[in-house]
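Changelog note: in this version the structure field was regenerated for every chain. One regenerated record is shown below for reference.
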Amino acid sequence: MMKKYMLLLITCLSLLTMAACKNESKETAAWLEGDWHSKAWNVTYEFDEDNGKWSISAGDYVLVADATLTLEEGQVLLTATDGTRYEIEKKSAQLLTFQQLAKEGAQGTTVAVEFEKVVD
């Protein structure tokens, strides 16, 4: 009977350890929130997350609202409701590349442009 309790205890501890490790390795895009400036385009974009939806704006101009986020091996993909995609790759804590890809059947793809984090 004691062996069964020990086996149950070890199994529970193993499952808790695996769950904790999985939560620790979960990737997030929290680093993306805030203001980013592109010298090439002379624009500052604000990336904002609210209740799981992302927006990109430049002052009063809203580039996208209510985009969904997908994380793929070092790359963030924001997809607008109309199908337009925004690929963002983190180069460092202060540098990212940004590219807009038009929805299928439409024009509007941009070249990849670097943005630097705006530090207040």
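Spot check on this record: The mean pLDDT is 87. The first helix runs from residue 2 to 25.
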